[in-house]
Amino acid sequence: MYTTNAINPEKAIDRSVADQPPAEEDLYFEQNPAPEYLPEFERKLSEFLTNNGTRKVAVVTSGGTTVPLENNTVRFIDNFSAGTRGATSAEYFLENGYAVVFLHRQFSLLPYSRHYTHSTNCFLDYMVESETEPGSVKVDEKYQVQMLDVLRKYKQAQKDNTLLLLPFTTVTQYLFSLRCIALTMSKLHVDTRCVFYLAAAVSDFFMPTSRLPQHKIQSSGGELVVNLDPVPKFLKRLVEAWAPRVMIVSFKLETDESILESKAKTALERYNHQLVIGNLLQTRKKEVIFVTLEETEKYSLTDEEEKEGKEIEEIIVPEVIKRHDVWQEKVCN
Which residues form a coiled coil (predicted)? Predict the structure, then answer.
């Protein structure tokens, strides 16, 4: 597996070059170097899509993007996203017969392993030393039923080759990767059966490569002032140029309920994609709204469902799939 944390000192700031203006959409990929792993990334993706034949595909993006402040990165700007929605949704897409390209922040939550890596228990709490076979380890009996169910689903996805894990770390890596996925799907003519489920928390600002210092910023310099450029809004480019035949679902997170629906509709009008799933930070694990230009629908868990451990993604994903079926019929006819 390629690494997303490789450092290339030759690509640090060159003081002899004048500062570049803020990157517009067309210039962003010229002014910022492509990840060195991109050819391997594209090879793995092409292989995966080819092997999955006519199966429908969900591209699920997940986790937060970092904004490095140095080329040899010690300091960076991050957000709180652990990738819960993306990892959980990926499982439900797989259960509904989709192949899943899981574009995720490295070391964020992954489908299936998420049940144990970010629980309130340490992973070792699920294990006990066998009393009948000294020196061996087994799963504690009280966790065996649940863990066996998760294990079987994970092994089935492996056997069927329906889950491709592709990591990123920085916002630039994410954007290059997303563009690569979209263009590769178009090239292989599989775009009409794909849905982009953009659950990643993408940084709004970044530090252009032309301004990155090579080494760690020294604290002895006193006050640190950082000037960041806005990340160009790529959703319109994704919809109109990179993946015009793909159904695209974006997410809108707000803390103020009074503006959530209007912000979602503004995004639809601006980028012309198919669906915005809106949620409030305070209630994001219990309820969401589906917003199109024609209507807004609310989906939520009952108190009883929440107590039983049902996940809101178990409702979200089948509803997205219904809409994807309609979309696929539309673009294929």
Answer: none
